[in-house]
Amino acid sequence: MDISINGLNKGFHTAGSRKKVLTDLHLELKNPCIFALMGPNGSGKTTLLKILATLILPDSGEVRFNGKDLVKDGAFIRKIAGFVMDAEHSFYQMLTLEENLKFFGGLRGVSGSDCERRTRELADDFGIGGFLGEKAAHCSSGTMQKAAFVRALLHEPSVLLVDEFEKSLDEDSQSRITRRLKNLKETKGTTALCVTHDRRWAKDHADAAGTIAGGRIEK
Hints:
Elements: E1 3-14, E2 17-29, E3 33-38, H1 45-52, E4 60-65, E5 68-69, H2 74-80, E6 81-84, H3 97-107, H4 112-125, H5 141-153, E7 159-162, H6 171-188, E8 191-195, H7 199-205, E9 208-213, E10 216-218
């Protein structure tokens, strides 16, 4: 899945003024690839991922997935994109992991036996199969981060957006997920855009990398 971003702008109103976060941002990702996105806190990394996931709209500029416009074809984008977002605040705490994943799978059009099979296969692959019956509120932050990966992959997306790749994960878990990302790229042609603070990981495992500075991406 090719992603083309041209002249992207986004700002937010804060304390009576407007702060620009993304300024005339350009990025071209050619399918398949793993792209590492870096930058200091508050530089706009998460804002960019939220725009690509259609959770928020840009102020101006153009984003296309294989030629499909992000604003006009949002339903298409949501079908082909998976978003690994903040696990701590994006699961229903009093539901079990399995109940959460079935719910979110249904929202993505995966239901019934297919959802149950995918949930168990992915949970086992990410090493959390034994926690499916636990309430989200009782699971560790690392388990929840892995559950966020499972949730993002339930509908077999061709684009994967990962916010803070290494958050709450030990080295073994990071290695397991890195292997999964590479396998998805090689076997499914997945394009992955991963926010990370680990420059070594970006150098060793990403096909390309860039840093957001001043609202733009510098490679």
